[in-house]
Write a structure and sequence with these properties.
This protein has about 350 residues and is an alpha+beta fold. Helix content is about 20%, strand content about 25%. The strands form two sheets. Strands 1, 2, 3, 4, 5, 6, 7, 8 and 17 form a nine-stranded antiparallel beta sheet that branches. Strands 9, 10, 11, 12, 13, 14, 15 and 16 form an eight-stranded mixed beta sheet that branches. Bound molecules: pyridoxal-5'-phosphate and 2-OXO-4-methylpentanoic acid. Pyridoxal-5'-phosphate (PLP) binds next to α6.
C-alpha cells in the first residue's frame, strides 16, 4: 500500500484530517451501528450536553508502521477501559472494549496510507472521543451521545523534538481532591488553557501542577505524567488519586523493572525532593518521554543535572526501549501490541 506524499519528518503535533473517521450514535438507551465517514464536521443541537456543560471525554493513542509494513497500535484495551471510567464519572454511556477496538481497527485500516512509514519518527495519532450530543437545558446528562474516532499524522509534541524543556510550577491547580483529575474529561483541559498560556508567555513549555490540597506534592503537567531518576539510578514516579493514570507511565514502570532491571518507586513525591533528582522527564502518548532540563518556581530555579541539551542516560534508555517495543524492534510483553493490518 502506497503511503501519502507527506514530509513525515517535518510534522509537528497538529490536526491534519485524514480520509476517514468513525461515528456511532447512542439513542433510546443503546448504541447504533457505527460507521466510517468522510465527513469531518459534526452537526449537533445548540443545546447539546457537550456544548453547554462540557459533557465529554477523550482518549489518545498511536498507530505505528513496522519494518515489514504491518500497522499496529499499542495497548488500546487500556484506552478503552479508561474511556469507560471517564464515561461512568460523567454519566455518559460506556463504549465496550469490543466496540472501541472494532472502531479503532476499522478507522486505522481505512487510513493506512496516513500511518507514517517506519523509521520517520512520526506516528498516526488517534483521537477517540465521546460526548453528549442531545439537547439538555437543566443540568443533567444529555439524552443522546456520539462516540467518534479520528486520526492525524503527528511528529513530536514539544517544539524542538526531544530537546529538554523548561517548565514552571503553576499557581493554579489542575485537579481538586475527589474531582476529575483521574479521568480524561475535556473540562480538565479547558481549565488548563489559562495556566498554560501564562507558562508559554513566560517562556516555559509546560506547567508542573502540585496537589491542590497541600501544594507540596508533584502531580503532573497538563498532558503528561512525571518521571524522576534518583542519583543512584532508581525510577520515581508520582502516585496520586488526582493524576491521570497514564498508559505510557504504567508501561514504562514495567519496562524499567523487567527490561532494564531498575528499581521503581511509585509514591507521593514532595516538590522539595525534586532538586535532588538526576533526571526529570514527562511521559504520555503525545509526549512519549520528553526530558525536562529546568523547573522554576517563584522561590527557586532548579537546573536538572542532566542539563538542557540532551536526555539523561536512564530516561534515554527508557525512551529507546519503549519506542523500540512500539516500533517492533524489541519484543513486546504479551498483549501489548494489537496488529491492525
Ligand atoms: N496526563 C494527562 C493529563 C494527559 O492528558 C495524558 C495524555 O493522555 C497523560 C497524562 C498521559 O497518558 P497516556 O500515557 O495514557 O497517554
Ligand atoms: C495524549 O498524550 O494523548 C494526550 O491526550 C495529551 C494531550 C494533551 C495532547
Amino acid at each position: 500500500m502506497e503511503k501519502k506524499n507527506i514530509k513525515w519528518d517535518e510534522l509537528g503535533f497538529g490536526y491534519m484530517p485524514t480520509d476517514y473517521r468513525y461515528c456511532a450514535e447512542w439513542k433510546d438507551g443503546k448504541w447504533g451501528e457505527g460507521k466510517l465517514t468522510t465527513e469531518a464536521t459534526v452537526t449537533i443541537s445548540e443545546c447539546a450536553g457537550v456544548l453547554q456543560y462540557s459533557q465529554t471525554g477523550f482518549e489518545g493513542l498511536k498507530a505505528y508502521t513496522w519494518k515489514d509494513g504491518s500497522i499496529v497500535t499499542f495497548r488500546p484495551d487500556l484506552n478503552a477501559q479508561r474511556l469507560q471510567s471517564t464515561a461512568r464519572r460523567l454519566l455518559m454511556p460506556e463504549v465496550s472494549t469490543q466496540m472501541f477496538l472494532e472502531a479503532l481497527d476499522e478507522t486505522v485500516k481505512a487510513n493506512a496510507a496516513w500511518v507514517p512509514p517506519y523509521g520517520t519518527g512520526a506516528t498516526l495519532y488517534i483521537r477517540p472521543f465521546l460526548f453528549g450530543s442531545g439537547p439538555i437545558l437543566g443540568v443533567a446528562p444529555a439524552p443522546e451521545y456520539q462516540f467518534r474516532l479520528f486520526c492525524s499524522p503527528v511528529g513530536p509534541y514539544f517544539k524542538g523534538g526531544i530537546k529538554p524543556i523548561r517548565i514552571c510550577v503553576s499557581d493554579f491547580d489542575r485537579a481538586a481532591p475527589h474531582g476529575t483529575g483521574d479521568i480524561k474529561a475535556g473540562l480538565n483541559y479547558a481549565m488548563s488553557l489559562h495556566p498554560s498560556d501564562i507558562a508559554h508567555k513566560n517562556g516555559y513549555s509546560e506547567n508542573m501542577f502540585l496537589d491542590a490540597a497541600t501544594r507540596t506534592y508533584v502531580e503532573e503537567t497538563g498532558g503528561a505524567n512525571f518521571l524522576f531518576v534518583t542519583k543512584d539510578g532508581r525510577l520515581v514516579t508520582p502516585k496520586s488519586p488526582t493524576i491521570l493514570p497514564s498508559i505510557t507511565r504504567r508501561s514504562l514502570v514495567y519496562v524499567a523493572e523487567k527490561y532494564l532491571g531498575l528499581t521503581v518507586e511509585e509514591r507521593p513525591v514532595p516538590f522539595a525532593e525534586v532538586k535532588e533528582f538526576a533526571e526529570v522527564g514527562v511521559c504520555g502518548t503525545a509526549a512519549v518521554i520528553s526530558p525536562v532540563g529546568e523547573i522554576d518556581s517563584h522561590d527557586e530555579k532548579i537546573m536538572v543535572p542532566s542539563g538542557l541539551e540532551s536526555f539523561g542516560p536512564v530516561l534515554g534508555k527508557l525512551r529507546e526501549t519503549l519506542t523500540g517495543i512500539q516500533n517492533g524492534d524489541i519484543e513486546a510483553p504479551e498483549g501489548w501490541i494489537r496488529k491492525i493490518c
